Amino acid sequence: MNKIIAKERLSEEVYKIVVHAPWIAKERKAGQFVIVQRDIDYGERIPLTIADADAQAGTITLIFQTVGESTHRLAELEKGDSIQAVLGPLGNPTHIEQFGWVVGVGGGIGAAPLYPIAQAMKQAGNRLTIILGARTKELLIMEEEMRAVADELILVTDDGSYGTKALVTEPLKTLCERSPAPDLVVAIGPPIMMKFCAATTKPFNVPTLASLNTIMIDGTGMCGGCRVTVGGNTKFVCVDGPEFDAHQVDWDNMLKRLSTYKNLEAQHHALYHEEACKLNAAIQEAEKHAGL
Amino acid sequence: MNSYYENKLTTNEEKALLDELLAKENLTPKDRMAIPVQEMPVQDPDARIHTMSEVALGYTKTQAQLEALRCLQCKTAPCIKGCPVNINIPAFIAKIAHDDIQGAAAIIRETNLLPAICGRVCPQEKQCQEPCTLGKSLKDVGKAVQIGRLERYVADRERAQGIIALPDIAPPTGKKVAIVGSGPAGLTVAADVRRNGHEVVVFEAFQKGGGVMVYGIPEFRLPKAIVQEEISKLEKMGVRFEYNTLIGKTRPLMALFDEDGFDAVFLGVGAGLPKFMNIPGENLVGVFSANEYLTRANLMRAWDTGRAATPLFPSKRVAVLGGGNVAMDAARMAKRLGAEEVHVVYRRTRDEMPARAEEVAHAFEEGILFDFLSNPIEILGNEAGMVTGLRLLRYSLGEPDASGRRSPVPIPGSEHDEIFDTVIVALGNESNPLLARTTPELAVDKHGHIIVDEEQRTSIEGVWAGGDIVLGAATVILAMGEGRRAAASINRFLAEH
Ligand SMILES: Cc1cc2nc3c(=O)[nH]c(=O)nc-3n(C[C@H](O)[C@H](O)[C@H](O)COP(=O)(O)OP(=O)(O)OC[C@H]3O[C@@H](n4cnc5c(N)ncnc54)[C@H](O)[C@@H]3O)c2cc1C
Ligand SMILES: Cc1cc2nc3c(=O)[nH]c(=O)nc-3n(C[C@H](O)[C@H](O)[C@H](O)COP(=O)(O)OP(=O)(O)OC[C@H]3O[C@@H](n4cnc5c(N)ncnc54)[C@H](O)[C@@H]3O)c2cc1C
Ligand code: SF4
Ligand code: SF4
Ligand code: FES
């Protein structure tokens, strides 16, 4: 059981929770993730990146977007409630060294996992440029945190409601055109964004890392559900990753595999909303009867 | 229908036969050999493919006594040598004949801590029942004394009577032992070490204990309540379980000694990454490892679609690749999850299948189709990246290979395509790389299996290992046997240090 110490709603769909997990807080490194399960009997196991941690206080910070049933259910928990299972830290830490000039690209919720990497890269003495992108202003997160670590911060939104109206790949291309070009690009966000970041940096031969967010079950290298094709070989994201050379990843295959349960999840999602509506109606009914 | 059993008597005939036999002063071997093999009552195949509840229902008291009377009580008892933990088989069987359940249970428990489980899942026809004199005399291993079924009967009767015999526990020694992994190997070590008065903590990565017995082997073959009961028993003995803890990640292995004050550590972390065939199309949507498929269905309870959040892939035509227990479990699970047609694709024939004979028989009864002597060379897919079928090659059986099995030889020009929407790969596992990668001091062989000596000691002083991580994919009873050996060594070590 892991208690929620604090909870904050960062935007319409994005939540930040601080969870008591002393061992994980102590061991975790930038780039690692946990698997969270709200209910150990029927709950789904969902991977979430450790966005921050406080070893002293024994807490880790998770930032997540409500996309389907499990993330919605997680968002229902309040400060003081407990998550039944949190396993981690999983995956390999990001390889941190002084590369020179590092560009971090965070798309949507990807800004959260990018933050600890940005911090570590900065600490290692790199010059740091961060591009944060989102569909719309509402969904752009971590601006203040990133501003504090980055030497240069570029903000873009798809609809132009904040920062420049652009996709993240546009400023990324401009940076690659500078001389000298960036020494390393780290891209984290929706798979489609990472795919196009890889395509953008490829012609410039800029080494590019992507943190893959595949479907997972155990997260310990037992089930094979997280496998992806990298450089023509099968790799397991939970034990070989989550970061890979973005130019070697078979993005189309990964995108297709992510859609494995799409129809089912949509149904689940709809069911969930139906249930929530019924519950709300019932609450209103009860309140009416109670004369509230 | 393909029936595994013969000579079915009615209940009344069974009773009459038993009374007649019990009335005799002395049973001659001839009398005993004349008793028919007692069939295991099972759920009707048409009904059971719609439920997760256990297929084999267990012997009645009459059946168990009749089966027990079949045992010739051989002086040499070759059956004992066939059992990896050397249960005194004729002795416990003799107790059943006289309906002394506690007596039988006590004999079994001298060497086997998990009889309800082993009685259900041991490949008996290759272990205790293989050398049985009765089976040899009747020239059919299927007619050997049904030792596993009798063992299960004893354990189930004992449980039904609510007797939970907790072993005596020695006074506290002040020594602490960490067990990593709660599969059969880990649970066995926990029990044996705890009995000697040491403090025991079991660390388990998953949210529940039992290892493959809960996430791999399905409910319809091994009810989870049985495994849970074994874990509760350990808890009552004072063993502590720490779930959601991945040693090597959540805690480095060496920190268990340096920071947490453990005096000994046992590693029973089981097998690891599933093997694939390295043929084109293996990462298409609709290709699963059996581990993933079964974990979703068992541990995550995805079959309970109304309640479980974990989704299952909807399948109509399923191909399962492989011929072992894992393949049988995946195929029968797919059937229960609503697949219309399930094929097991296997390179050899039924005779060479490594699965337990009973599971193969049950799979046949449940309408699983077997495509023997064929093997895929490619998984076919469409533009959306979904599986559409298999490209297969036909085989014939050639000369026996190193394992003594006749090896399959592909027939040139025999390529043909079959339509499937789901492919489940059940070809075994590589070893889990996690501990070795995070603990360089731990010596492993080229397959990643932890290297141990005859006492299960690893290259690190104070660290023992056993079960699938040492043996490669093996069996519950072998994992348990290694656990017992390790526990004995740990107990000696702690007494000396
Ligand atoms: C290593 C790793 C780290 C991650 N870190 C974070 C994080 O820090 N914050 C965060 O919000 N999310 C993160 N994710 C993604 C997160 O795990 C998924 O969003 C979550 O599992 C969805 O669960 P759900 O039941 O709410 O949605 P579902 O109902 O399962 O899915 C809803 C929709 O999202 C899509 N989807 C499902 N799983 C994923 C996935 N893994 N990635 C992308 N889309 C998916 C589905 O196709 C579907 O359309 C991470 C994933 C991985 C593998
Ligand atoms: C589907 C299937 C069917 C089978 N059918 C049969 C059968 O009919 N008969 C039979 O005898 N055998 C069968 N087997 C094989 C048998 O289950 C195994 O040989 C046996 O379970 C191995 O036991 P173990 O204790 O070594 O490991 P496991 O049972 O694999 O348990 C290992 C445990 O360790 C945990 N773990 C792993 N790494 C760590 C870590 N770093 N920290 C903490 N915990 C960790 C895992 O989560 C797991 O719970 C079957 C196997 C499968 C997969
Ligand atoms: S433990 Fe297994 S091998 Fe030994 S007697 Fe029981 S069923 Fe046979
Ligand atoms: S070998 Fe068979 S018949 Fe002989 S004692 Fe063992 S079980 Fe009984
Ligand atoms: S999540 Fe199961 S192997 Fe990676």
User: Termini of chain B, distance in Å?
Assistant: 61 Å
The residue fraction in helices of chain B comes out at 25-40%
Structural class of chain B: alpha/beta
Q: What is the CATH architecture assignment of the largest domain in chain B?
A: 3-Layer(bba) Sandwich
Instruction: Determine the mean pLDDT of chain A.
Output: 89
Rg of chain A, Cα atoms, Å: 20 Å
Structural Rg of chain B: 24 Å
* Total of DSSP H or I helical runs spanning 4+ residues of chain A: 9
Q: Tell me about the biggest sheet of chain B?
A: 5 strands, parallel
- In oligomeric terms, what are we looking at? heterodimer
- Beta-strand level of the residues of chain B, as a percent range? 15-25%
Question: Please, could you describe this protein's structure?
Answer:
The complex is a heterodimer of chains A (292) and B (497). Chain A is α/β, with parallel strands linked by helices and 292 residues long. Chain A has three domains: 2-90, Translation factors (Elongation Factor Tu (Ef-tu), domain 3), CATH 2.40.30.10; 101-258, 3-Layer(aba) Sandwich (Rossmann fold); 262-290. Helix content of chain A is 32%, strand content 30%. Chain A has nine helices and 16 strands. Chain A has helices at 22-27, 69-76, 111-123, 143-149, 169-177, 191-201, 237-240, 251-258, 262-289, and strands at 2-9, 14-20, 33-37, 46-54, 59-65, 82-83, 85-90, 101-107, 127-134, 152-157, 164-165, 184-188, 208-211, 227-230, 233-236, 243-245. In chain A, the strands form three sheets. Chain A has a seven-stranded antiparallel β-sheet with strand order 6-1-2-5-4-3-7. Chain A has a seven-stranded mixed β-sheet with strand order 11-10-9-8-12-13-16, with helices on both faces. Chain A has a two-stranded antiparallel sheet with strand order 14-15. Chain A starts with a strand and ends with a helix. In chain A, 48% of the residues are buried. The mean pLDDT of chain A is 89. With 497 residues, chain B is α/β, with parallel strands linked by helices. Chain B folds into three domains: 11-160, Fumarate Reductase Iron-sulfur Protein, Chain B, domain 2; 176-272 and 431-496, FAD/NAD(P)-binding domain, CATH 3.50.50; 274-428, FAD/NAD(P)-binding domain (3-Layer(bba) Sandwich), CATH 3.50.50. Chain B is built from 20 helices and 16 strands. Chain B has helices at 11-23, 29-34, 45-48, 61-70, 78-82, 89-97, 101-111, 115-121, 133-137, 147-160, 184-195, 212-215, 224-236, 255-258, 290-297, 325-336, 357-365, 434-438, 468-471, 476-496, and strands at 176-180, 199-203, 240-242, 264-267, 271-274, 287-289, 317-321, 341-345, 369-371, 374-381, 387-400, 406-410, 416-419, 422-425, 429-431, 463-465. In chain B, a hairpin with a 5-residue loop joins β11 (387-400) and β12 (406-410). In chain B, α1 (11-23) packs across α4 (61-70) and α6 packs antiparallel against α7 (101-111). The radius of gyration of chain B is 24 Å and the shape is globular. The model of chain B is unreliable at 1-6 (pLDDT under 50). The chains are: A alpha/beta (292), B alpha/beta (497). Chains A and B meet through α1, α2, β7, β14 and α8 of A and β5 and α15 of B. Bound molecules: flavin-adenine dinucleotide (2 copies), iron/sulfur cluster (SF4) (2 copies) and FE2/S2 (inorganic) cluster (FES). Residues 216-219, 221-226, 236, 238 of chain A line the site of FE2/S2 (inorganic) cluster. One iron/sulfur cluster (SF4) is lined by residues 71-74, 77-79, 89-90, 132-134, 145, 147 of chain B.
